[in-house]
Amino acid sequence: MAAEAHAPTASEYIVHHLQHLQNTTQTKIVDFSVINYDSIIIGLTLGLLAVLVLWSAARKATSGVPGRFQAAVEILVEMVDNQAKANIHSAESRKFIAPLGLTVFVWIFFMNFMDMLPVDGLPALWAWFYGVTGHDPHHAYLRVVPTADLSTTLGLAFAVLMLRFWYSVKIKGAGGWAHELVSAPFGTSKNPIFALILGVVNVLMQIIEYVANTVSHGMRLFGNMYAGELVFMLIALMGGAAALSLSGVLLPVGHIIAGTIWTLFHILVITLQAFIFMMLALIYLGQAHNAH
């Protein structure tokens, strides 16, 4: 006799939703051979959507009275441009960095906004499709918030780090940047022995600074979005916990109230996190243009 299907427990529900669509079933803390297909596919799709939205706004822009969409995009462009001017004084560099900042903000906002969709919406559709194609729907894993994946946020932060290196060499020259690495933050000495010691210490401090900036840049976005994702899962569990008791019956009511409040608050969170990531990228790229 086939085993009867049973509803998942709260722990099983959360563990299932936190599992990525991967090329392996192994779970390790650090494994560079693991590929999270859901984060890549959804992230690239939303990146393309961000580019299309900005391209559509530029193509439809008029010199007359702007519509709501054009006015919103113009406000966004002006905000990013002002922040770029405040951090990067090279007009030539801003031609690339300002549009980059705008794209990063919109792209991350779109990825964060996936957290506003119903928790079981897209995963349920994927499980249905997975079952229709002959697979076990209980093993259909899908996480729809790319920024709740540490590999995504650290990948974005690493890209900013590579741009910092590029502009450090471009603006200061390879020799100028190398001199900065061995002379800041503690300076140099005329004594050869002290100069060598200070040079080694300065390089180590610079490495620590670059690593700390990059890790914190990615971890900040990941931590906030991961926490928001968990809260939505816990709220979703409230909606399915009705029982023949007063507390059980009131749980779905609490699900609606808590879900509404958290959704309204989370709109601010996803916007703020996109803005913070963009601002830190501009600040770090601005530091690459400045000499100690």
Would you mind describing this structure in some detail?
- There is one protein chain.
- This protein is mainly alpha-helical and 292 residues long.
- The protein has helices at 10-17, 37-59, 68-87, 91-113, 121-132, 150-183, 192-239, 246-289.
- The longest helix is centred in the last third of the chain and has 48 residues, at 192-239.
- The N and C termini lie far apart (75 Å).
- The mean pLDDT is 88.
List descriptors.
single chain, about 290 residues, mainly alpha, about 75% helix
List the helices and strands and how they pair.
Elements: H1 10-17, H2 37-59, H3 68-87, H4 91-113, H5 121-132, H6 150-183, H7 192-239, H8 246-289
Helix pairs in contact: 1-7, 2-4, 3-4, 4-8, 6-7, 6-8, 7-8
Low-confidence stretches: none
Q: What general outline do the C-alpha atoms trace?
A: globular
The sequence of SSEs as H and E is HHHHHHHH
Radius of gyration: 24 Å
Helix proportion range: over 70%
Largest sheet: none
Total count of domains: 1
Instruction: Tell me the total number of β-strands.
Output: 0
The computed structural class is: mainly alpha
Can you count the helices? 8
What does the average pLDDT come to? 88
Strand content: under 5%
Distance between the termini: 75 Å
